[in-house]
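The passage that follows is intended for readers who have already worked through the single-chain material. We present the inputs for a multi-component assembly, then the predicted structure in tokenized form, and finally a short commentary. You are encouraged to pause after the input and sketch how you expect the pieces to fit together before reading on.
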Amino acid sequence: MTAIETGVTAHVSIDESHHLRIGGCDAVQLAQQFGTPLIVYDEQLMRETIRAFHEVFRREGVSYQISYASKAFCTIAMCQLVYEEGCGIDVVSGGELYTAIASGVPAEAIHMHGNNKTPEELAYALEVGIGAIIVDNFYELSLLAKMAQDAGKVVDVLIRIAPGVEAHTHDFISTGRQDSKFGFDLASGQADAALRQLIDLDSLRCIGIHAHIGSQIFDVDGFRLMVERLADLYVAAKREYGLPVRILNVGGGFGIQYTDEVAPPVSDTLAAIIESARLAFDARKEALPTLWIEPGRSIAGPAGITLYRVGSQKRIPGIRNYLAIDGGMTDNPRLALYGAKYHAVLANRADEPAQTEWSVAGKCCESGDMLIWDAHLPEPASGDILAVFATGAYTYSMASHYNRIPKPAVVFVRDGRAKLVVKRETWADLATRDLPLSL
Ligand code: LLP
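Having made your guess, compare it with the prediction:
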């Protein structure tokens, strides 16, 4: 077997029958066995990524918590995997919280985000007793304080800050700048005001400060600036306001390679963040708090490979070649939303040289339903299996039912074994909640 240089995933190779293998499994056989589209996760790679984060924290000797941002890919098996690997889980809705709880992860290991948590979601979080709630705004602060008081509970909270740092990334997915719907604004004094309110709220215990400055970040300068700003606020929370803060949560955002980006290893980025935190707290003569990170994409993204079956083709002479696959924006809306780029191969002829450019179209009734513009591929034939790399994050979790297309199945592969972790939806599933016009 020869290793192929996709650069985006570790446990991938090509066997003597020219088939792509993922985690020791033949991708063509997986497509036959489980159908297409199929999202295949390299389980070992996800475990290795998490272990690389642990390794850095341990080497640096800091107290820490890795809280997997489940919005990237949230299913029962995934929650179990990350918990097994020593992570907590960050959820942003009642649905994600339900999934994490249903997976058997203890409530104390779960943390809840969200800029508009509903009273029902907060009640559920209080009822199960989740580890911490990251409070986003004044409305939530008073609502949660009242709900906790009524329930006779004291709830651990972190407050989310908008530190006014814009990470160098796609504009739609940058959440840390000042003009943001998320968090208490630092520059205008909202963050201080929230901390002052917390002094008198007996039902809430403020244990830390949080910020998340964006996603798919390569440049650590944004993290450094955020840490500087948060350190000032943390010190004020502790010394001026007397709050029992002990956690600095720097969010997620570790960038990954999709095509030709040069992504620094997550361990380098994390080491740089820890170093900047150490410098910032030393300079303020304050002990380094427990550091929390919330990686999502970096854990789930590179490990996911989506398999599609090639169907129709259309050549427009002198303009473009289109090949259509049996999925599209319903299982991966990221090109349509963000102009995302992906690398793909034909899994049944994985070592054939690319001959032409083929634009990969989905099957939805929408011109914008494209997966890849101008992919370099061998001459495709109907029935070929197209493997699209680095599709593990924000694909299944952002899938839709447009055109009433069922969501794909998901398998985890490892050491040549495949485990179905999400069943494929059926046409009938799509209509299960519909009611007829007349009863
Ligand atoms: N923590 C918070 C508070 C977040 O808002 C996010 C992502 C994360 C952690 C995880 O960030 P990651 O490590 O995955 O970059 N749908 C977009 C990405 C949206 C990210 C939203 N927040 C995409 O497909 O690129």
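Commentary: Residues 1-8, 170-174 have pLDDT under 50 and may be disordered. The pocket of LLP is lined by residues 69, 71-72, 90, 113, 173, 175, 212, 215-216, 251-254, 294-298, 334, 338, 394 (CB under 6 Å). How closely did your sketch match?
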